[in-house]
What does this fold into?
Amino acid sequence: MSNQLIVLSGPSGVGKGTIVNRLLQKGGYALSVSCTTRDMRVGEEEGKSYFFISKEKFESLIKENGFLEYSNHFGNYYGTPAAFVKDKLKTHDVILEIEVDGALQIKKAYPQALLIMILPPDENALRARLKGRGTESDERIEERIKRYNYELSKKGFYDFAVINGDLDKAVAEIENIINSKKELKHD
Ligand code: 5GP
It folds into this structure.
């Protein structure tokens, strides 16, 4: 497998989606589309944002070893479809945008996967961003901050951590990390 499996994780509100879009615009990358049992949100598209499936279907896919990893996050299943990713890896570096528990499963099964954690400058910056979105209650924001602290406690398992204070800088840093790993592989 010469193309890379790149795992990006980070708390809600850190700007992962924007970073992933920037990388995709540059070309050469494919984004893994996960399966989830959560409801579709306004603006999302089947097969693009996620494959939205039932809990029963998800559980039968687990039994069939259909996922490279999966986890239950805030009461819903999320999983990376194995066949989809293996197929994309034939031609592209594949980005998985997944939370930490799933990322650690990937690292166990594929030690060569590159794990990058995207972090806010600090907890207050994250809280301010979540508040700025104006979509969630204070209670929900505090739940997300708690989850952020849990994710932060797993930072040591990641290959790299990148702070997203300035978007351009964070994207450049991630690209440098990916490219330096590539050079190592081809030397
Ligand atoms: P959301 O519901 O906001 O789209 O995603 C919630 C969380 O699930 C995010 O942290 C996202 O990175 C994570 N996630 C999305 N797809 C997967 C997946 O396939 N596996 C795992 N483990 N986490 C996922």
Notes: Residues 34, 38, 69, 71, 73, 78-80, 97-99, 101-102 surround guanosine-5'-monophosphate (CB under 6 Å). The beta strands are 5-9, 29-31, 35-36, 51-52, 67-73, 76-81, 93-97, 114-119, 160-163. The chain has a mean pLDDT of 94. The two ends are 16 Å apart (CA to CA).
